[in-house]
């Protein structure tokens, strides 16, 4: 965990999680899974976000449930990466192996099933590109860094 990290009440963290600096994880978020989750600096999660780095196979080809022996299940795993200056809106879900690019924004109540390129705004179920996001925040980061040195 880096510096200036705020994790609000009622957050569930399981597995391996890397948090850089200037990160906010709002209340009622859940982050977990065996493959790990990495959040880069200046990123944030709004209330109720769910991030999974592992998920059962729901096709019916295998059994589901963590109480079933592993040889009868098929768990899909992949590290989730949240880039610098990215934000995820309230009650959104991010599935395993997803990369949210630098400066990307995810609208509330979105289901992220594919990688999100840098500085794009995505929303919906499944999430799709809505428009590009401004890069002005990079200049603001430079000001902040200059003030703290």
Q: Concise description?
A:
The chain is mainly β and 149 residues long. It has one helix at 136-148; strands at 5-7, 12-13, 17-19, 23-25, 30-32, 37-39, 44-45, 50-52, 54-56, 75-77, 80-82, 87-88, 93-94, 99-100, 105-106, 111-112, 120-124, 127-132.
Q: What's the helix and strand layout?
A:
Elements: E1 5-7, E2 12-13, E3 17-19, E4 23-25, E5 30-32, E6 37-39, E7 44-45, E8 50-52, E9 54-56, E10 75-77, E11 80-82, E12 87-88, E13 93-94, E14 99-100, E15 105-106, E16 111-112, E17 120-124, E18 127-132, H1 136-148
Parallel strand pairs: 1-4, 2-5, 3-6, 4-7, 5-8, 6-11, 7-12, 8-13, 11-14, 12-15, 13-16, 15-17
Antiparallel strand pairs: 9-10, 17-18
Name the helix and strand elements from N-terminus to C-terminus, one letter apiece: EEEEEEEEEEEEEEEEEEH
Spans of at least 5 consecutive residues whose pLDDT stays below 50 are none
Q: Biggest sheet, strands in spatial order?
A: 1-4-7-12-15-17-18
Share of β-strand residues: 25-35%
Rg, Å, rounded: 16 Å
Q: N-to-C terminal Cα separation, in Å?
A: 20 Å
Helix/strand/pairing category: mainly beta
């Amino acid at each position: 965990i880096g510096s200036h990290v705020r994790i609000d009440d009622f957050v569930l963290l399981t597995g391996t999680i890397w948090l850089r600096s200037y990160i906010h994880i709002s209340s009622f978020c859940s982050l977990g899974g065996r493959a790990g989750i990495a959040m880069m600096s200046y990123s944030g999660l709004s209330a109720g976000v769910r991030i999974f780095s592992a998920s059962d196979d729901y096709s019916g080809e295998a059994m589901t449930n963590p109480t079933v022996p592993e040889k009868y299940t098929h768990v899909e795993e992949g590290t989730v990466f949240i880039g610098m200056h990215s934000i995820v809106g309230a009650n959104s879900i991010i599935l395993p192996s997803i990369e949210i690019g630098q400066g990307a924004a995810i609208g509330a109540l979105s289901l992220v099933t594919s990688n999100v390129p840098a500085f794009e705004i995505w929303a919906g179920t499944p999430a799709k590109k809505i428009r590009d996001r401004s890069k002005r925040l990079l200049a603001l980061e430079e000001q902040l860094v200059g003030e703290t040195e």
